[in-house]
Specification:
This protein is about 85% helix and about 0% strand. The protein is mostly helical. It has one domain. The longest helix has about 55 residues.
Length: about 100
């Protein structure tokens, strides 16, 4: 990677401080990404199945929650509509009496 002989061990702390902040961030990001890829490759088939099952379960929970919210909104709409009909019929009955 680096041809500098001081990068072999003891001088590594000094080498880090001489690099720009951008280089340090890029190297850290690359190291984290490679670690994540290693973790992803080291999963067993059972872990893959369990992960898929968990994701499917979370998706179903999300869909169920959305369905409940839609039903609640629909019930609110129906309740308001009923109240408006009652009010309208009361107003019409009063106007007919006069």
């Amino acid at each position: 990677m680096c041809q500098n002989p001081s990068s072999s061990g003891l001088g590594q702390g000094l080498l880090l401080s001489s690099r720009s902040e951008l280089q340090q961030v890029l190297e850290r990001r690359k190291r984290v990404q490679s670690e994540q890829e290693d973790e992803g490759q080291s999963r067993t088939p059972l872990e893959d199945v369990l992960l898929q099952r968990q994701q499917r379960h979370l998706q179903l929970e999300k869909e169920e929650e959305e369905k409940k919210q839609e039903e609640a909104q629909l019930m609110e709409f129906v309740r308001v509509r009923r109240n408006l009909r009652k009010i309208h019929s009361v107003i019409q009955n009063k106007s007919v009496k006069f």
